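Why do we bother with a discrete structure alphabet at all? Because it lets us treat a fold like text: something you can write down, compare, and reason about line by line. To make this less abstract, here is a complete entry for Sugar-binding domain protein. Read it the way you would read a sentence in a foreign language you are learning: slowly, and without expecting to understand everything at once.
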Amino acid sequence: MLSVHERAQLVTAARLYYESNLTQAQIAQRLNVSRPSVSKMLARARELGIVHIEIRAGDEGKADLLQRLQSKYALAGGCVLTDEQDELTQAMHYLMAETTADKSLALGWGYALGEVVLKAADCSSYTQDGMVYPLIGTANFPNKGYHPDELVKIWASACGRSCYMLGCSAFPDSEEERAELESRSVYQQLLQQWQSLDAAVVSICGYPAVPDEATATRFGDALEQQKAVGSFLSYYYNQRGEFISGNNDYCMHIPLAQLRRCKKLIGIGLNAGKKALLGALATGLFTNLVVSEEQAKALLK
């Protein structure tokens, strides 16, 4: 049996080593014992259960958070990113693995999605069969994340898919211009493909956001009046998941009816706040969600 003094000394050594991060040499000097004695004290503390060391892989904590998200929001899957240093690469690997068996894949736009796709350009570890399509036209923004035709080309090149490009602006100036774009064969063929998508990946964004997606022209004050909290594919919604329409909204993007038919809709929520994520989940469209560990914990509160 340990004496009270001996046990107290083991506890002190353990606290200095595991909690204060002192070296064994520093502890020896502080306790006025030899360094080998400190090593024996730490081993003894573990044997007696004074110190309990639990080693957990990062994925275990992540898996628990994901399971709780799936249960709370009726999700089929997703990924909780635990690598704060390189969330984008982690997200890219998840998307590559998740969509490998999906022959018909489509990509949206947004800063986060663009950064994830650019990570794929440096990766040659995956081979996928099938096609990859854009879900929306191109915006006149310098950021590549808002050039979906370019994103599908990069993704296809990275994994061996074929790609299809829309080749038009996301924001026509008038209803007549949109009608003309929709009459083109390239759009009509894409419309057919949108009806049978296996998987789609979109960025979930907050509102208001930068860059602004011509919201004043398209929606007037409707987004403010109806309390928009976020968007994806330039579809805006409130916290109840209700979509907001605009009198001059001529956006060239996949119709919601087709998007609802998509078997797997993956939301990249890395740049979105809690309200934007909750509103997106409330739409009932998303089957999979990619968020940071911090975001996951916020959604579970």
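What the structure line is telling us, in plain words: The chain has two domains: 4-47, 58-299. The first strand starts at residue 77 and ends at 81.
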